[in-house]
């Protein structure tokens, strides 16, 4: 239906003012109902119409300010006596008691309560209601649950200027307290307002630390004495060692003298096994390992310089970053250095030269964590640069197992004290990895992002269930891991033993082959040296060597090019393992040649 | 009358495993101590009050009839009343 209105206006009337006038209503359109349209529709029966009649509400959220609450208890010892009775006077109390006993109400009550009570007593005597009926069928439920970890508590650094939580130590009995050492490891990053305090936290109260430790300089590491849980020893940024007694307050009981301490920050301090329980030793990047008796801190009892040439020369010394000591092997200890070497030492050696037994190389950066496996002391874990490696004491050339190279730097790691195949590592991107090498070897079993900033330290509690990690902003996070990761599985020890043995054997075989190859090369170069009488005493100069290899190279390249012209595409892939570090795949002949030359050059220059 | 009371209490005490019996009145002082420490009285009185108020908070028409605390070493049983408490410490048979 089209309704069209046409308005007309003369052109010479445009722009004129409008004169409105009234006129009566006019009916323009009248649309009558058309019943035939109803056939397009179907009546709907029933109709579902929701209606709601409620009050209009709006949602608001409010968060109150933190309310500090404290728990107090009162013990009611004696009291409730009526005013006229003096509790001290025996007579009065007895009189009162007698009076009460005569009361009618008392009788009836006691009779009634008495019968109730008797019923329960007899019940108890008849049967033990808490008896375990199905004890033997303790179902060893292989928890099919996913391994998981849950954050329980977060302890933040209460100071304005946040420092890194560099070291954590659990209280030796019961593990209800955690000592955290705060320091700033950045070079010259310490501002004058930075507080030097380190704290001992009670796990249950994350709002306020239980106790403060006030050292003279920032504490880099802190350890509880496993024998006496009141004593802690700490190594500080200025090289001094101090020890605290928690019963005596926040100031250190005694500090080592500056002249005899380390010259660099003390990165690790460990308690030793001794009769008096007062021996510790400390390591620092100045290249020394010092032994102390805390009763006499004026001088170290022993000193070791980590000189790989075994001459005790401090200039050559390697800086130590981590220490390892296992109470089951009290004469041996290991030091992890900044240069990436692990040095194994014997404490009981007579001369300083014999103290350093052997070194293990293989890492590219400072070794931040070093720990023996609590179940297999011959194998130890090192965490450095971008990998974590597991070593066997007998194989000195390389580690027996290693993780892949990660994207972030690994900063700390430790074994689980309850499962021989589980270890934990933390990375600089704030993630915690739980590795179980019997389950999966390429990737961590569980990878958890704990916080956004870098994690610097990690410590597992002795029951293997809780672990604490410290971050760059001083936040210590307490995590609980799922029971599957902290209960010993059925054949775990046997499987872990088998795995370690297998890997050790493999490395031994590789080591032997390497040695053979080197021997062959050596004998070959010896022969060629004998033939070259021009060389004189056998010390080739580098230039002559270079020209000779260059000439050989070009010869070989030409020969190969000719061969190639004859052959069609022949691509083959191969592995070359060069000194255990570089792992390459190459295609084509030239790569092979270059590596032949390279390996030959390195062989000769080593000699 | 008091003889009956005495008899009842004595009977309770001679049951197997019973270590001690206490009767506490509403103010919390003990009227009858037999070979147990006074500590129990005050503490258990408070605990019973708390338990009773909890039961009544959950259902106002409910009331506490009996309270049993089982610990590693023994079991403490408290029979409450409006004015008195009868407490018995028993070593249940294992």
From TrEMBL, chain A:
Tree of life domain: Eukaryota
Record keywords, A-Z: Cell projection, Cilium, Cytoplasm, Cytoskeleton, Dynein, Microtubule, Motor protein, Repeat, WD repeat
Subcellular location: Cytoplasm, Cytoskeleton, Cilium axoneme
Region Disordered: start-end pairs: 517-544
GO CC aspect terms: microtubule; outer dynein arm
SUPFAM superfamilies in the record: WD40 repeat-like
Keyword flag Ribonucleoprotein: no
Gene Ontology annotations of biological process type: cilium movement; outer dynein arm assembly
Biased composition (Basic and acidic residues): 517-536
Protein name: Dynein, axonemal, intermediate chain 2b
Organism field: Oncorhynchus kisutch (Coho salmon)
Gene responsible for this protein: dnai2b
TrEMBL record, chain B:
Pfam families per record: Robl_LC7
UniProt entry tagged with the keyword S-adenosyl-L-methionine: no
GO terms classed as biological process: microtubule-based movement
Keyword set includes 4Fe-4S: no
Residue ranges occupied by any Roadblock/LAMTOR2 domain in the UniProt entry: 5-90
Record localization: Cytoplasm, Cytoskeleton
Gene3D superfamilies the UniProt entry points to: Dynein light chain 2a, cytoplasmic
A cellular-component GO term for this protein: cytoplasmic dynein complex
Keywords: Cytoplasm, Cytoskeleton, Dynein, Microtubule, Motor protein, Transport
A GO molecular-function descriptor: dynein intermediate chain binding
Domain of life of the source: Eukaryota
InterPro entries, per database record: DYNLRB1/2 (IPR016561), Roadblock/LAMTOR2_dom (IPR004942)
Function, as annotated: Acts as one of several non-catalytic accessory components of the cytoplasmic dynein 1 complex that are thought to be involved in linking dynein to cargos and to adapter proteins that regulate dynein function. Cytoplasmic dynein 1 acts as a motor for the intracellular retrograde motility of vesicles and organelles along microtubules.
PANTHER family, A to Z: DYNEIN LIGHT CHAIN ROADBLOCK (PTHR10779)
Family membership noted in the UniProt record: Belongs to the GAMAD family.
Identification of the protein by name: Dynein light chain roadblock
Gene that produces this protein: DYNLRB2
């Amino acid at each position: 239906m089209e309704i069209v209105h046409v308005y007309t206006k003369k052109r010479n009337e445009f722009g004129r003012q409008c004169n409105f006038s009234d006129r009566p209503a006019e009916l323009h359109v009248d649309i009558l109902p058309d019943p035939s349209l109803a056939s397009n529709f179907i009546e709907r029966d029933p109709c579902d119409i929701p209606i709601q009649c409620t009050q209009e509400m709006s949602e608001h959220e409010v968060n109150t300010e933190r309310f500090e609450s404290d728990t107090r208890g009162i013990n009611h010892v004696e009291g409730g006596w009526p005013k006229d009775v003096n509790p001290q006077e025996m007579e009065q109390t007895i009189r009162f008691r007698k009076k009460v006993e005569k009361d009618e109400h008392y009788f009836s009550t006691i009779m009634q309560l008495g019968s109730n009570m008797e019923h329960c007593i007899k019940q108890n005597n008849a049967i033990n209601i808490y008896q375990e009926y199905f004890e033997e069928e303790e179902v060893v439920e292989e928890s099919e649950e996913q391994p998981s970890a849950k954050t329980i508590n977060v302890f933040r650094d209460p100071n304005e200027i946040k420092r890194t939580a560099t070291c954590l130590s659990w209280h030796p009995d019961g593990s209800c307290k955690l000592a955290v050492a705060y320091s700033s490891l950045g070079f010259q990053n310490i501002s004058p307002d930075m507080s030097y305090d380190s704290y001992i936290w009670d796990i249950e109260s994350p709002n306020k630390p239980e106790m403060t430790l006030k050292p003279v300089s920032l504490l880099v590491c802190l350890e509880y004495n496993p024998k006496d849980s009141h004593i802690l020893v700490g190594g500080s940024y200025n090289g001094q060692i101090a020890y605290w007694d928690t019963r005596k307050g926040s100031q250190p009981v005694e500090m080592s003298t500056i002249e005899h301490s380390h010259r660099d920050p003390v990165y690790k301090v460990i308690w030793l096994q001794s009769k008096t329980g007062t021996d510790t030793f400390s390591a620092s990047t100045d290249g020394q390992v010092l032994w102390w008796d805390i009763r006499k801190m004026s001088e170290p009892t022993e000193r070791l310089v980590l000189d790989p040439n075994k001459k005790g020369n401090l200039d050559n010394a390697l800086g130590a970053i981590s220490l390892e000591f296992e109470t089951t092997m009290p004469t041996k200890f290991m030091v992890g250095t900044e240069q990436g070497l692990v040095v194994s030492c014997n404490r009981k050696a007579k001369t300083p030269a014999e103290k350093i037994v052997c070194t293990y190389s293989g890492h590219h950066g400072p070794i931040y964590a070093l720990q023996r496996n609590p179940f297999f002391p011959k194998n130890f874990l090192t965490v450095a640069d971008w990998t974590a490696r597991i070593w066997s004491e007998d194989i000195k050339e390389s580690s027996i197992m290693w993780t892949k190279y990660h994207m972030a730097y690994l900063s700390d790691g430790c074994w689980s004290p309850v499962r021989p195949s589980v270890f934990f590592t933390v990375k600089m991107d704030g993630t915690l990895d739980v590795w179980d090498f019997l389950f999966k070897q390429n990737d961590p079993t569980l990878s958890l992002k704990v916080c956004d900033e870098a994690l610097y330290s990690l410590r597992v509690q002795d029951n293997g269930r809780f672990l604490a990690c410290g971050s760059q902003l001083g936040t210590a996070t307490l995590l609980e891991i799922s029971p599957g990761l902290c209960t010993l599985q059925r054949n775990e020890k046997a499987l872990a033993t088998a795995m370690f043995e297998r890997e050790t054997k493999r490395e031994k075989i590789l080591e032997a082959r390497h040695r053979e190859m080197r021997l062959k090369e050596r004998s070959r170069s010896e022969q060629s040296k004998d033939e070259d009488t021009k060389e004189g005493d056998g010390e080739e100069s580098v230039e002559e060597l270079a020209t000779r290899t260059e000439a050989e190279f070009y010869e070989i390249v030409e020969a190969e090019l000719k061969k190639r012209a004859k052959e069609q595409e022949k691509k083959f892939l191969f592995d070359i393992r060069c000194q255990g570090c570089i792992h390459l795949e190459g295609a084509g002949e030239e790569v092979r040649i270059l590596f032949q030359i390279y390996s030959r050059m390195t062989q000769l220059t080593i000699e | 009358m008091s003889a009956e009371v005495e008899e009842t209490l004595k009977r309770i005490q001679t049951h197997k495993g019973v270590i001690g019996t206490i009767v506490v009145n509403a103010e919390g002082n003990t009227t009858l101590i037999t070979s147990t420490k006074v500590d129990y009285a005050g503490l258990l009185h408070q605990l019973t009050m708390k338990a009773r108020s909890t039961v009544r908070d959950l259902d106002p028409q409910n009331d506490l009839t009996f309270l049993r605390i089982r610990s590693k070493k023994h079991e403490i049983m408290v029979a409450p009343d409006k004015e008195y408490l009868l407490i018995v410490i028993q070593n249940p048979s294992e």
